[in-house]
Amino acid sequence: MALTAETESRLYRSLRAAAGTAAHLVALGFPTAVAVLARPGSSLFSWHPLLMALAFSFLMTEALLIFSPETSMLRSFSRKVKVRVHWALQLLALLCALLGLGIIAYNKHCNGKPHFVTWHGRTGLLTVLYASGQCTGGVLLLYPKLVKNWTLAKLKLYHATSGLVGYLLGCASLMLGMCSLWFTTSVTSVSWYLAMLCPLLTSLVIMNQVSNAYLYRKRSQH
After folding, report:
1. How many domains, in total, are found in the chain?
2. What is the pLDDT of residue 104?
């Protein structure tokens, strides 16, 4: 028996809501698991994985999910409030990432180890630099008159697109970190695969959210 268009739409929204809820749980659960594993305070290095997990798994994911029509924690609030909370969470994510980067750089310096020689290190550096540029570029959305010949709609589109690239870089950096000796020594077998699925799940949810927002914007223009 064929499904009606209304039933298909309702099923699709339900699946998106379920995936968004799972993304919220993963966004919080992954840094919690990393905290248990790293035991922050046990060493200087122990703060690095926690701060990076907080930045790119929790804070950045929640900053983007705020605009989800199905699973936003602020669905009943105005867009102005959502934008302000988005900015606050993104700024906190950037601060955590910068602190995490500084800690690992100083830790390597203290132990006489080379900097940024692994794919994880290079991708992590690129991600933090990209996130810094993304936050700086986002200021243009607050003051669009600074950019002539650019409409606010176009600025929002480019900000969302470049933000998705930055988020995917963050997820890639987390996944590469889970291939490190420190992580693979502590997490093995099925647990390792489950951990790798965490950034994969959230990235898929965020990509779907951004693509749907883009399609909605295109439809509204016609």
Report:
1. 1
2. 97
